[in-house]
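re: ur question from earlier - yeah i can do the single chain one, its not a big deal. heres the input i used so u can compare w yours
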Amino acid sequence: MTACFVFWFSLAALLYVYVGFMCLLVLIALVRRRPAPRWCGGEPSVSIIICAYNEEKSIVQKIENCLALDYPHDKIEIIVVSDGSTDGTNDILNAYRHPLLRVMFMPQRAGKSACQNRAAQEARNDILFFTDATTMHPPEALRVLLKGFSDPTVGCVTGRPVFRRDASMTCSGLSRREQYELFLRRKLNDVQTLFGAQDCMYAIPRRIFIPTRPDLDSGFVGPLQLLAKGYRTVYVFDALAYIERRPPSLQDEFARRSRIVLHGLRGLIYMRRLMNPLRYGFTAVALISSRLLRWLSPVLLLTLFVSNLFLLHRGPAYGVMLLMQVLFYAAAWTGYRCERKGRHAGALLSVPFYFCMLMCAAVTAMVNLCRGETYQTWQTRR
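and the output i got, formated as tokens:
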């Protein structure tokens, strides 16, 4: 009886996380869709904040990209924080001269959140625009992003990253996952709020900015702290951030996803009060559904598989369910072998392969969480 309950609970939870919650958002959007923000025509002053660690190859290009943004120069400042760089970054910043540029040097590595806190403390302008040293924006990106602030309930706006792609199984799976994620974000935009921002491109009014604890991810915890104060985070899909790095390999993507899940789980523990449905209602339900349960999916997959083994004697239906799971994992393994050999396959293999890679990355993140890892500092992938 216990195995039967565990099996059906695990299956129902997985179906809810990846299908049911999406359907719920679609239904809610039909009755409580928020109107799209309309640009009010104002031009608030903006502090562009860039955190850099050993970015000698890209920092000049990044500064010039910011200067090329279609925004009045008398309403922007560019703040670059070098996080204990040990290459030529500091020398380049010391030699670069421009009246809009302000440079800060951390005496030793402190991590992205600490750098952003320092820059926000010194910023002079109305809006804090956080961007990465390896991210390039089209000229209209800042104006498009700021449209999100037309709604007074919005405390954070974030843009859409565009990664380089190749024909690998990893990039194929990533592209299909992004299609799913974009649809989910559109529906969250329509009915509620996003939970977290894209680290490479987001903005917050300086008057409501809340510093993030240095060992936590500012791109995730920062918007959650604003949510606790009643401010939403919205996704502006036409505000683009081009990630100027090589297409992600399997190792790159595994490390990135593991880091994201670790930061997310640590952030949820810190902001756990937001997951109280009695106090935060559907916001808590959406946060649990779109973040916590998804990151705990490996546990549900394991309990589903093991409990299925104990139920094989209960009838052929359980045998069919086990066979479907085995075939899914076999497809993922075949996709992995294709990736290792440099072969490309369609969605039939790339989707199971990428999904299982995400689950393995989540397991690694949970192990690192139990070990007390924080990944407070970062190393840019080239």
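The chain has one domain: 1-382. not sure if urs matches, ping me
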